[in-house]
Design brief:
The chain is mostly beta strands. It contains three helices and 26 strands. GO terms for molecular function: pectinesterase activity.
């Protein structure tokens, strides 16, 4: 009964949050149009970004019309308060094909199709894609690297194979998004909630992959990946995550999992404590892949108080930055 009441509480809280976001919409002071056909202000997303003054105070929207934008985009720290809006993830695509080998892992950030280092940024209805496509010989190939704080994504798609989405640092909110990959394809040190997202495993992976690789090295760090009301599906076997630090934290909450999850669930990888100090857990999940009878013994049994804390929007947004973002 206590758990049922808590679920009802979460649903009501989520509804109230959506209402408050609508009620407190922040208008943009300027809209720029990017159009490949030349019927806008710019033909390039990067050129639109470059036109924005450094440390701008008001919200600016960059509307990216339908098309495939073959360019490498870099949003630096000195740009802020920007809304990027496309015509839909199936209509507006930003893509590039940089990649590197594991022996040059230090080049990982250089492979990103879109790099977002600014604070207070919103992305809506855009596909970010790394076009490297050899799943039999995966290479590091990032589609989106986000390291700026207070960044939100709505109805976006992220397409790649290995390291698709670098949730590198900062607090982030992903809602109704699609993330496609096979190896460590949601990775980084971020503090993020993924709500109602589709997580899709690519076909043809010769060995089991990993959905997440979260980095957390101290129990005092507030970071972690939380997946709420998501769907995990696809065509190759995967682990839910492998530890990119002894205190790596990933939680799947009320998520449907197809029969693609390895029975063990999690991989301790190179952690010296063999996963004992990781914060990996599942609660309320369903589907054949959610069968937990053979999970690793060090998967955490989550307590109600902890579930309430980590699944609430305040995990990433204690001060209310989401409702203050431009629309």
């Amino acid at each position: 009964m206590k758990f049922l009441l808590y679920v009802v509480f979460l649903l009501l809280t989520s509804l109230l949050l959506r209402v408050s976001i609508i009620a407190t919409t922040v208008p943009v002071m300027k809209t720029m149009v990017v159009d490949l056909e030349g019927h806008g202000d710019f033909k390039s997303v990067q050129k639109a970004i470059d036109s924005i003054p450094n440390r701008n105070q008001g919200w600016i929207k960059i509307y990216i019309k339908a098309g495939v934008y073959r360019e490498k985009v870099n949003l630096t720290k000195n740009k802020t308060r920007i809304v990027f809006e496309g015509d839909g993830a199936s209509q507006t695509t930003i893509q590039w094909g940089d990649h590197c080998d594991l022996n040059t892992v230090f080049r990982t950030p250089d492979t990103a199709t879109f790099t977002s280092a600014a604070t207070d940024v919103v992305f809506k209805r855009i596909k970010f894609m790394n076009t490297f496509d050899d799943i039999k010989n995966p290479k590091i190939a990032v589609a989106m690297l986000v390291s700026g704080d207070k960044t939100s994504f709505y109805e976006c798609s992220f397409i790649g194979i290995q390291d698709t989405l670098s949730d590198l640092a900062g607090r982030h909110y992903f809602k109704d998004c699609q993330i496609v990959g096979a190896v460590d394809f949601i990775f980084g040190y971020g503090q993020s909630i993924y709500e109602r997202c589709q997580i899709i495993i690519r076909r043809g992976l010769p060995v089991p992959g990993w959905v997440t690789a979260h980095g957390r090295n101290k129990p005092s760090q507030s970071t972690g990946f939380v997946f709420k009301y998501c769907r995990l599906m696809g065509f190759s076997k995967v682990y839910l995550g492998r530890a990119w630090g002894s205190y790596s934290r990933v939680v799947f909450y009320n998520t449907y999992m197809e029969d693609i999850v390895m029975p063990q669930g999690w991989d301790s990888w190179l952690t010296p404590d063999k996963g004992i100090n990781t914060n990996y857990g599942e609660i309320g999940c369903s589907g054949p892949g959610a069968n937990s009878t053979s999970r690793v013994p060090w998967e955490k049994k989550l307590k109600l108080k902890y579930i309430r804390k980590i699944t609430n929007i305040s995990f990433i947004d204690a001060e209310g930055w989401l409702i203050k973002q431009g629309q």
